[in-house]
Amino acid sequence: MSDHDKTPRQPSARTWTRLGLGALGGLLAQGAALAVAELAAAAVRPQSGPVVAVGAAAIDRTPAAVKEWAIRTFGADDKLVLQLGILAVLTLFALALGAFAARHRRTGAAGVLVFGVVGAAAALGRPDSTGVTDALPSVLGAIAGAALLYVLVGLLPPARRGAPGERGEQIEQEEQEEQGGRWDRRRFVIAATAAAAASAGAGVLGRALSGAGGREAVASRKNVTLPPPGSRAPGVPRRAQVGVDGVSSFFTPSSDFYRVDTALVVPKVDATTWRLRVHGDGVDRERTLTFDDLLRRELIERDITLTCVSNEVGGPYVGNARWIGVRLADLLEECGVRRPSQGGPADQLVARSADGMTIGSPVEDVMDGRDAMLALGMNGEPLPFDHGFPVRMLVPGLYGYVSACKWIEEIELTTFDAYDAYWVKRDWAREAPVKTQSRIDTPKPFARPKTGTVMVAGVAWAQRRGIDKVEIRVDDGPWREAILAAEDSRDTWRQWSYAWPATKGGHTLTVRATDRTGEVQTERRTRTVPDGASGWHSVVVTVE
């Protein structure tokens, strides 16, 4: 044998064509699998789709530090980024699997079924799973994708039998026999085009049907008329706003209110079929209430500032709204619940939502006289779906992860020793009162104001305690007291302003607040985990 014969032969152009078209077949198979799964999920429920189920499972298993990074980096788009990431990984896997199937047809096509197994396991493992039917979208999608990949590979150009780098398997011989030794491009193009068109149609139809499935919920929200509250919120003082451009509006519009949760698909709950069950330790009279039951009760209206525990120092995840709802303590007392300080056996209230989230709140805080409520309305209208329609829970003075259950469907009285709620299992604190915080809204970081009087302004909050004083420091100079706007209530944030005689050059502006207990906001910087960030907010500006 000559040295030339010993040299490995490079793959032929036909081999590269076969591998490339195999990768394309894998991509089309992925599209078909996802489209069929989307269509099936519309018939089962949107949360059972493989991308949503796998994404939710990924969120559940992501370390707290990574979640905080995602929220800090992507904000409200964190869920979109996650889903795009999942699709990117699926695309790479599909391309590789298609190329592999070009050499090993049956094995490669069977590999698509792995998608079905992963998606089905993720859907069945969700806390809000409704049963075996949740696995159907992933299974049906995988079967459709595997079948399509098998067909498309069968239409590829014949492989060179025994070519170097290939095994010369029987599969290749069968393909050559099926093709008669010649490749009909037209058949492959027609099949690929038809598959793409059918997948697109199925995907669009699935989306439309999923949307239609929420029409009853949308209609039920439109039909809600909130009764006048029996206990109205006091009027907001005229001077509750400082009147400085750039400061957050006293009331945060519902459309701009922060949203931090784990729901990849916002639950669309029909108010006419919604139910709330109250049960557990110390509940003498278990109850199941409808939305109309709550509407018939006396409603309270309150201005309350909510804060997310994921809010970094100076961050955006805080907002103020006017809420209407049912006083939660009254409902619990009617069920026979007593506070732990009064001998009640339960010290934790576990709220469960339609998407399986669990949130644990201290019973003592819920029933200590503060305006903890089951909220039905926000800023004068029924709750938006993003913020919990038809009913959400909120407790002034506690971070949202231990108080603000959206889409609530169940309240169970238990103990902290007996049960750890969702976030507690992920290294967050069991109890988390809101920390005293302040924020500079204007000027923005790296602003370039002119010399002279520059208005520095922002907001401060210490729910349940109220804000007593806000101070500003320029560089390393002395603390100067800012002017406080009028207080609405101790459960709302408070605006402040300071007229700064700005001099030319670079400067660091720092703010701190003091609450009504006399506690000064700490300088010590801490992360959001386990019970909220702390530290002073600063901005750097250059005065020209």
Keywords summarizing the entry:
18 strands; single chain; 544 residues; 14 helices
Describe this entry's structure for a reader.
This protein is of the alpha+beta class. Helix content is 34%, strand content 21%. The protein has 14 helices and 18 strands. Strands 2-1-10-5-6 form a five-stranded mixed β-sheet. Strands 3, 4, 7, 8 and 9 form a five-stranded antiparallel β-sheet that branches. A hairpin with a 4-residue loop joins strand 5 (348-353) and strand 6 (358-362). Helix 2 packs across helix 5 (78-103), helix 2 (13-44) runs antiparallel to helix 8 and helix 7 runs antiparallel to helix 8. The chain starts with a helix and ends with a strand. The relative contact order is 0.10.
- C-alpha geometry: globular
Whole-number average pLDDT?
91
Portion of residues in helices? 25-40%
Strand content: 15-25%
- Please tally the β strands and state the result: 18
Query: In terms of structural class, how would the helical and strand content be classed?
Result: alpha+beta
Strand order of the largest sheet: 2-1-10-5-6
Low-confidence stretches: 162-180
- Rg from Cα: 30 Å
Distance between the termini: 83 Å
- Report the sheet with the most strands, covering strand number, pairing sense and barrel closure: 5 strands, mixed
Q: Count helical runs.
A: 14
